[in-house]
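Entry 12.
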Amino acid sequence: MFELLSADTPNGKKVSILLEELNLKYKVTKINILKGDQFSPKFSKISPFNKIPVLRDLKTKKTIFESGAILIYLGEKYKKFYDKKDRLKILQWLMAQMAYVGPMFGQHHQFHHYNHGKSKFGEERYFRISTQIYKDLDRRLAKSKYLACSKYTIADIATFPWVARHEIHDIGLKKFKNLTRWFELISKRKAVIKGYDFMNRGETIPKP
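Predicted 3D structure (tokens):
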């Protein structure tokens, strides 16, 4: 049994999707980041940077912060979606999402969607970078069925929820046939559909 402390964000969805893929039992503790729940002394003890998500393994009493570390923990523990022979490739694509795809898309969301008109420089910069990421992902997926290798891995699980925000990117997912093919393939997975709506709000995955 696990406890997922999270808000309904791409980083939160990464973990819920993997928990569903592994068919694990978990309960969700909602952290309202708009009200500042993440800065409470109690949450700060388990998340040093006051970020969601955090996962508690209620059986082992281990607490893990940082979404990428959580995916690795679960992948290693259950020996799924993180095959030993492809581990280096998986790690590279996972770290690319953690260090580049997520942060750059996140900045694009802030400047282009949530605070449009406040900084022309910010809007143009992150739109340009995000468009290049689409191109880079599309080029990779022209060579490989999934990001790291021929198999679905935690690298795909980490990246998918960020691409799922394509509607607010205004880049045009359909322009990238390989990325669209990958997105649609993952969108059909039952665990992904369920994990995407882990807050039980009736949320559905956007169409390309």
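Annotation: Residues 104 and 129 are 7 Å apart (CA to CA). DSSP finds nine helices and four strands in the chain.
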